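User: Modeling request: complex.
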Amino acid sequence: MFEISFFEIVAFVRQVSGAVAGAGGLHGWLLFNRQHGKLSRLIEPLMIGGAVIYLVAWLIGFVGQSLAQAHVGISLEPTVIDVARSYAVQTPLAIVLVALLVTSKRGLSKVPRLYHFLFFVVMSLLISTYAISGHIDLRQVSYVWHGWHSILTLGTVIVLDYLFFVCRHNRKLLARLTESFDRFTVFILAGLAIDIMSTYLILEEALRLDARFFFMQTVVGVLLINGILLSGPLTRRAAVYLKSERKIPGRLQAVLGLFGATSLVSWNTITFLDFVPNISLPYVALLVIYVAVIAGGFVSHLIIEGWPVKVRA
Amino acid sequence: MKSWFTWGELVVLIAAILLLVSLPLLAAGRAGLWFGAQGLYFIGVALIVGRYFSRYVRD
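Assistant: Request completed. Predicted assembly structure:
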């Protein structure tokens, strides 16, 4: 039922941390202006932490081996040779990342925008080259798009949730963040479109209509409905309160927390199942676990907000 | 009165619902609706991205 290998977990951690560091660089770079400079500064610890974890996972994978698979349930398994080639390409990039990390304290204080941009570029190159097919063909384009889209999707969702978490007691910053929500939504939806396009390139050989595929397609449907409701009517409603410096009603805050938890859990679920493919649970069992994890995430959110002692509004 | 959704959001929402509805059909070997939902998703994303960048350029 569960055949999870150590290197599958390493590959999952590498993808998540790489996506977070890349998204941290991207949004830190884009948000670094007069209105949103403070938000950009808040991202820095997450970006540095993501890059450090990525390097550790990369080194473990370099010593052993790691495989990656395509998202949304459609499997593209790189060969061991494809992965070995990728490490040869990635080694100089990993050295550049180490240099960026070593100089990051000084660099982020002197030329913050440039450093965010450099982190974004280096992480983009690293995460896009998790497998090298040896030819410039559709398979290679699929690898690149599939790897890179995580920065726009999973990475952006984690950066956004992190920003909401660290800004939760600062109404002014929350208002700024809510104003920028549509920008994050554009990146997330475009990232999923890139992922779908990358799977079409290899569709015939990769489409397996099993329980895992149907479950992951269900999660994609749920996260799209969830994402549109969260970024659309719910965020616009919250923005009205924040702009007029009024408290967000407790019920709206709880609904926002539930939708936020669903988004975070859904993206992590998809990425986890991609990197841990040998889970042969039936569809219903996967669905029950998924709902239970969302419930756990939501309860954690409520506890962080002070429940059951008090709910901050 | 302000509407709840933009056109792009509405199209993506419909695409997501169609995606979920299409899964039993796909299991039965009929992939038309599944592909249709994916196509609709691309249209919705194009509308959302277009709206965002037109506002970005205007502002």
